Amino acid sequence: MKTMSTLEQLSQTTKGLQQTVATEFASLDLAALNFKPAPDSWSILECLEHLNRYSRYYNSAIAKAIAQNTGGTDVTSISYSWLGKKSVDMVRPQNTKKHQTVKHMNPNNSQLDRTTVEEFLQHQQELQQLLQQARGANLAKKAVPVEFFKLLKMRIGEALEFVVVHQERHVQQALRVKQQQAKLAAA
Fold first, then answer.
1. Total structural domains in the chain?
2. Domain that holds residue 60
3. What does the pLDDT look like over 7-24, one tens digit per residue?
């Protein structure tokens, strides 16, 4: 896949996620944002907090990788390592298999408020900037340590895709929670 078209696609997806969260969730009251369809499932805010926890790590790790690998290399496509391919495929929204998240990334039963939504939107702005900066970086460089095992590294391009696809998955999950709540309210 061509690098610029991939980065543009990721940028468009990120803008769409930002818009979805702003329009679908920002106006909801706190009770609706904290509604859980089941005790072991996540609320809208827990879905967003999970993504915030990942963004706190990956936004800075990707920024550092881009800064250290800018210029000099003309990369025309994003290639995937076994780790990157597996990571991206695992979090794709189309992959309906549930995965256990690592304990410190699991926000279940957290006390959350509107700042969670605001933080998510701020992370999206940061990610947009990273996607712009990535246009001048060697996206094939293995430079982004994996959050749960930092000895393993993803390529910059696949790490960017992982972050965006992972966000897509959980924003869709949050939308399903909103739909479930609406069905209960209508019944």
1. 1
2. 3-12+41-186
3. 999 999 999 999 999 999
